[in-house]
Please model this.
Amino acid sequence: MIIDAWAQHSTTRHLADPMLDSLRRWQPGIPLEEQPVRTTVEAMDEAGIDKSLISAWVAPGNVMISNDEVAGFVEQAAGRLVGVGSVDIRKPMEAVREIRRCVEELGFKGIRVLPWLWEVPPTDRRFYPVYVACCEADVPFCTQIGHTGPLMPSEVGRPIYLDQVALDFPELKIVGGHLGYPWTDEAIAVATKHENVFIDTSAYTTKRYPAALVEYLRAHGRRKVLFGSNYPMISPAKALQDLASLQLDEEATDLFLGRNAQRVFGL
Model:
């Protein structure tokens, strides 16, 4: 089974947001308007993807993809899409209640909040109710680590911030997307140190993985790295087109492409 750990079925609000303008400089094929759900499923089929985790996008004062919209997309996809929710961290009690609704009523398998959208690191006190709610619901907290494509500060994505989060919440599963580049060594160090910290490879094609991450995938990090595409910014077929160049053995390949995500997200 191949699972895409980071994807979106984007709304027009998300795609038209000016934050994506910088991404279009090097990814000119990003659509400008919402596509039918079958378009996402067809992109998965092209790459042999069995399931994709698609996320809501909540920013300060701007819900670009709502949790209910994600639930609707999941419902249309006959088991191919899995929901990941998002919340407004400025409203802690509402965020906790919404996480419970996402998991208990909508059947979502994770919660994602992006520090750069809020311009605060994941050690900020506003994140901590989210971590408690994720622990109680037994779902991973998903976030971005590393450089941001949109023209927003990258510093809040330093992987080392997750070290303190993992120390405070050792039972919390944390999935850091986008490799942590240019701080990939930090990401590897934090994932190695903490049993429940993982890295996903979204937003990068296999030929662009840093050498340190490839070595980690081949050896002691084979149970710590999940495949992700960041669709529709990168299609899963493009993200995987040079997979053979990683020279992974059969076990490492199976873990990377699907078994790690199955275990982490309880799929």
Notes: The first helix runs from residue 12 to 15. The two ends are 11 Å apart (CA to CA). The chain has a mean pLDDT of 96. The beta strands are 3-7, 51-55, 57-59, 62-65, 81-84, 111-112, 141-144, 174-177, 197-200, 225-226.
